[in-house]
């Protein structure tokens, strides 16, 4: 199942961090639970189970609606606007 926001995504994005949550690393923290990549710009951020919830903060600041898991072996996507897996 998909949503209208998927068709607006670029064909490919490059992760801005391969070492973890870019925002946590910038703050000198390494306490995230799971990583997500923004499919609008490639920003790698921590999930809502993490203390800082940077992926959701990125959505609220940048309005990029679709993320994908950045965990090995996972390929699901989530749309913040439609509040569902896409």
Automatic annotation (TrEMBL):
Q: Entry's SUPFAM superfamilies? A: RING/U-box (SSF57850)
Supply the source organism for this entry: Saccharothrix yanglingensis
Q: Which PROSITE patterns match?
A: ZF_UBP
Report the coiled-coil segments.
Answer: none
Q: Which Pfam families match?
A: zf-UBP
What is the protein's name according to its record?
UBP-type domain-containing protein
Report the domain of life of the source organism.
Answer: Bacteria
> Boundaries of each UBP-type domain copy?
1-86
The lineage, from the top, is: Bacteria, Bacillati, Actinomycetota, Actinomycetes, Pseudonocardiales
